[in-house]
Fold this protein.
Amino acid sequence: MKRTWWLLLVAFFAGAALAQPNTKAYAPEDLNKLTQPEQIRVLEKQYAELSGGRQLPEDQLEFYLDQIPRGWTYAQITQDMSQSIRDRVDGVTFPDQEATRPNWNTPGWTTQPPVRGQVIECASRDGRYRECASGFFNPPTIDRQISSTRCVEGRNWGHRPGVIWVSGGCRARFVEAAPLVAQVPEVTCQSVRGYRECNVAFRGPATLVRQVTGSSLCVEGRTWGQRPGLIWVDRGCSGVFSEGYRPSGGFYDPNQYNQNVVDCASLDGAYALCSWNERFGQPFLIEQYSLRACVEGVSWGYTPRRGLWVDRGCRARFGARR
């Protein structure tokens, strides 16, 4: 009788164990064999297992999805996840964050956007390239040229959202131009059955003009985002988008970069680290997606030990020189 009772107990617990769902995240080493929804599911599950149930940050998920077509294996991503979790303290800050954060007193940096009519002076001394944070949400114009060298837009000065750059001896004072009155082309992108990508011809960063009535809340970086030439939406977000800012070009030519390209995003203005292969050397900013200024040493930077970091809402693509 006792033996029968014991066998019943063993069978019960064995059956209960078999009834438990297999929560182990499994995937082939070559993640290209999976569809993107399957990739997302596996990555989120693996991160939750490694971190004790935490949610995989959206910017980190986007980074991994970009690396899969470039050859990153499941093991490489798992290793990178483990390293990022070891670096994190509470999901936002890092152990030596203060040591890697910049000095906010950097010349040219303003913590608040300038008021209409405020003048920003930017000077290329000894012919060197320099970036000045303007905080402008609209393209700048020259209020007064100071240098004897003629300042020509696109040649020795230019701009991107929140930043003015000068080179070749150009020195001038700049003011924010009035917003364009002309109709800006708009693109509607709708998430009906989950994740969707919409091609756009925008040169600069996109902005959400309005949300489609009845759709789920659209939050940039969480339910919608952007990459070169496209806008993506997910989780029921449907919106109308337009080009929020058209830059006049940067100092560096994107064609000068090799295949080591990384998108790095500061979501909700938080400090974030992104994986960077140090054997490629110092990263350079190729293209800025955010309306918040990306200024080296202020809202983005690189240290060999920690890697590539962004802060204060900077979202951009970085690459290594050939």
User: Anything to note?
Assistant: Residues 186-243 form one domain.
